[in-house]
Amino acid sequence: MTRRWGQNLFPVVSIMIAAFFAYGTVLAKEITVRSLNNIKPTQLHEVFALLGAFVVVAMIAAALVSTSTFRIVFAQRMRKLALLRAIGAGRLTLARKLVAEGARTGLLASIAGVALALAAGQLVPVFGLATPGFPVPEAIGVVAGSFVLTTLAVLAPAFNAAKVSPLEALRTSAVQDTKSAIGWPRWALGLALAGGAAFMVRKVIIEGFADRIRPPGLTEELLLSTVVSAALAFGALICLGPALIGPLLRGFSLPLRRLGPVGGLAISGVGGAPRRAASITTVVALGVALVIGSMVGAETMRSLGKAEMASAYPADLEITGPVEPRSGLTDVLPYRRIEVKLDNGVQPMIMRVSDLNLRGLRDLADFRFDGNLQDMGPGKIVLSMKTAERLHLAIGDRIPVKSETGEVTLTVAATAFGGVPLGSSAVLDPSDVDKLGGPKTPDGALANGPLEAAQGLDVESLAAKRAAKENYFFSLFAVAIGLMLLTMLIAVVGVGSTTALSVLERTNESGLLRAIGLSRRGLRRMVTTEAFLYGAIGTVLGLALGIPYAWLGIVSLGVNWPLQIPLAGVALVVVGLGALTVLAGLLPARRASRTSPVAALADV
Q: What is the pTM of this model?
């Protein structure tokens, strides 16, 4: 019994972690609502709905880890199960017993996770926050959901194990998972899912780039198509995973074989059980795809956000009314604003424009222009990208600009992707504002410096607003990345479980290797290299899915901004995951190295 629960430790940990964060999200919402009286629960609905989606993904990952672990655990009992069949036990009876064992595992793990989250929630008053109480319905929901997921996860391994015949009891457990062939029904399903994913990708690309002026509801439709395509692609990976392990291993074989026999043995160990390797690398790929995809999407949106915030908050201070010289202020840029009508002959628009000197802005590097800002001068206009799209204007086009007292025809010199400052739709040269009858004196000015330097003036701190908004977006990004790292943590637990149970399963093999001269250190290196391979293959698959779908998400949102890949962050995730998977293999490696060759071979 002790050994059985020792083998079930890894699904217990996976489900417990997922349940902890699931109920922890509920408690976090309660703490936020009770601690900040000016925030209503409805205002938090969208944020916590997003966090809930990530938790659901983490629980699915935990279920996949559990499926892989139960498959290995049941495979190790094949001889015992076959003996039970030989003395009269039916397949359905065995399956019920195995399913009941998995269900108990899920129930106890989910209760433990909820209890840990509740205990952590009771510590928050130490930090000056309100206690979350004990939301009973949500606790029951988390326990029930984890129980159902674990029961579903154990169904396939249980019924497959129950099919064992007395003759199959003569085989070693390692033989149960040596086939990479997946059969034509699984090939057909996998290719169909991949085809469906490709069809949805084609739809997003065609409709996403068809017209920048989108009809209502198109963005939501494209986002849904992207999510459906990602789900189909992940389903195809689950179906076709065993067939992909061999080709991917060949890519790693050249550098690993330089390690000598240890590298070759590690490759054989992973490749010898392709179904097991596919099940755990799929979970790793899910975690990597979520984290890398979110990092790429967030970096792209951050770059766009910098341009938009540079437009909305182009300086530290905005002075309205008369501008007086002050010693503490620098980069003072006076401006005038005027209301005009731009008429492209099809869809005239009334808008506010300014004559702000864009080249004098401190944060001009944060902007992204289509065209050359150096071409700006008399007879030229810089438009925001949204205005250019609405008027269907491109660089070099000419457009009449009218006011109540004048009219000029201007040439589009550049378009600003993040918008132009001061809430305007366009920027004109001061001489053209004069022709349009603009005011003789400035309406205000932008300046950099401390707020104290502008005392006595009618001034607004743009720097404070910008910092508050940056902190808000950083907090959301940190929470989202944290929850997605949860999926990677569960994946690492899965790597540890697969490696540990593989060591148990191959005790005789370890003894034989020790008997023919492989040192304990060499055996430890072999096992940790196998664990590293699980993470490396999953990382490759995760990158192959995460980055393209991050780009599709940007296209779906209609964001006209180049994809930004944070190379340092991606490298950190890849290296960190590699280190974690190696650490996950250390304990199994120590256990394997302690195997006595005589004791192991005595059981052959």
A: 0.71
